[in-house]
Amino acid sequence: MKAHTLARTALAAVAFLAALVAIGCKEYRSFWINVTVVNQTGAPVRDIEVDYPIASFGINLLAPGAVYHYRLKVNGHGPISAQYLGAMDKTIHAAGPDVRDNEQGQLTISLLPQEKIQFAPQFSMGH
Fold first, then answer.
1. Shortest CA distance to 82 belongs to which of 66, 59, 65?
2. CA-CA to 102 of 20 to 30 Å: which in 23, 29, 86, 124?
């Protein structure tokens, strides 16, 4: 008798889980933007900061020709910006593309000679 009760309980639990799936429990998926920061200035760059909606990340030092990878999750809507300390401790700043919740893709941020920053976004909306 106990084995029969245990089997019924297990069957009821399986049926309950199947019903949850059947009524459309939404699939949870995070969307990410893979960021690549490239130092093409020809000199070491320090105190790099990348700001995006609700968060930021920093890089202490990036050697000439070096590449840094970072994966970010967008929460909210707004611009991405980047800044770093250039020659004679001058702050170089540039505004980049806007991002939105659930965007995904790639972003290359190139630190260029003559105190320029270039953004190359490849975003799409996640589904």
1. 59
2. 23
